[in-house]
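Protocol step 4 of 6: structure prediction from sequence.
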Amino acid sequence: FYLTGIALGPRGRLDIPVLFTPNTMKLYEAQLVIHVVRENGKNWPYEHAAKLNKDLKSITVAENGGIRGIRWIYPIHGIPEAPQQKSVSAVVRCRARHRVEQRVEVLLTGIVPGATAVPTGRNAAVVDRNKPVNIQDEVQVTPGFSTTVEFLYELQYLSDKIKSQLDSLVGIHLMQKVQDTESGTVTLIFNIVFAPNKPMRNAATLVVQCATGGIWKFPLLFIAVEPEVDDVINIEAAGLNKEAVVGFRLTSQRR
């Protein structure tokens, strides 16, 4: 649609509200075009009119060589995000200085490639493994965010500091995609590797994006408990009021 007749003074500011209310989980694209002309209808004089690129979309050139209008073009991408369900986070627990692999399944609702559109009012949730569904199995492997795969994913943390701590301790890999042929919902099965080096408790968010648009978020919680005892040091008394000494070595894993 078009809005005309908006006056803007020198060094003025124009606020343009944009409302996005998607009804399906897919990418929407639009362009916001702002065309400015002088209020008196005259052209802006320009000495080097001959050097202007006639195909330039941002400039409207008049016959006399002046500039009749200036155009700004802003591309808009509308990416719908599924409402995050207020449920208990999937917990990945491991003892410090150990390694654990855990399978996490997440359910994507809404429109997906090759499926019928479903209203976004249905929340994304963790899969109920005991519920029978009509499914088709398909392996879908992706290394992370990329525009060439069907589903894109990454782990987001509360801060950059937590991210730097967990990036080398946590690995995630998409193993399988299971699609319900009747409802169009998709279950993604991830394998998460957690190898903490010290006790910690950090929250994270698994963000999944469909290549055709739509974002789903799932809460995760990484817990590392106290490590096992390395060794027991026995000190035998040399006698009353006499010191007893025992020696042991500590090896530093860092410089």
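Step 5 (inspection) to follow. Confidence is low (pLDDT under 50) at residues 112-149.
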